[in-house]
């Protein structure tokens, strides 16, 4: 990974009315938020389209409730992809194994698409 692109793995529990409806098994979730780099977000969607990876959108005018807020404020471009997790931090957590496989492919192909000359400046 490049030192100006941060990698963060995290999860939060939000209500549908705040962030939209996401469903278990419908693929990784790509977040669209004001503190996420729009160039990275677009590239995640383009990568998902190119490789036919099913994805869900998660849009909000709020921060992410993850470390991506701090990383973005420290001048590193950030994006956020996640998988739906029920009963987080319990002995009975539930995730979709297909979503796990799809998020791995998405992140790997995203990294493969990066070139030295790429600019993540949204301007």
Question: What can you tell me about this protein's structure?
Answer:
With 123 residues, this protein is α+β, with helices and mostly antiparallel strands. Helices cover 33% and strands 8% of the residues. The chain has 4 helices and 3 strands; from the N terminus they run αβαβαβα. It has helices at residues 16-19, 38-50, 68-73, 97-113, and strands at residues 29-32, 56-59, 81-82. The chain has a 3-stranded mixed sheet with strand order 2-1-3, covered by helices on one side. Helix 2 (38-50) crosses helix 4 (97-113). The protein is globular. It starts with 15 loop residues before the first helix and ends in a 10-residue tail after the last helix.
Concise structural overview:
With 123 residues, the protein is of the alpha+beta class. The protein has helices at 16-19, 38-50, 68-73, 97-113, and strands at 29-32, 56-59, 81-82. The chain has one domain (22-113): 3-Layer(aba) Sandwich (Aminopeptidase), CATH 3.40.630.
Distance between the terminal alpha carbons, to the nearest Å?
22 Å
The biggest sheet amounts to: 3 strands, mixed
What is the second-level CATH architecture?
3-Layer(aba) Sandwich
Strand order of the largest sheet: 2-1-3
Q: Tally the helices: what do you get?
A: 4
Give the beta-strand count: 3
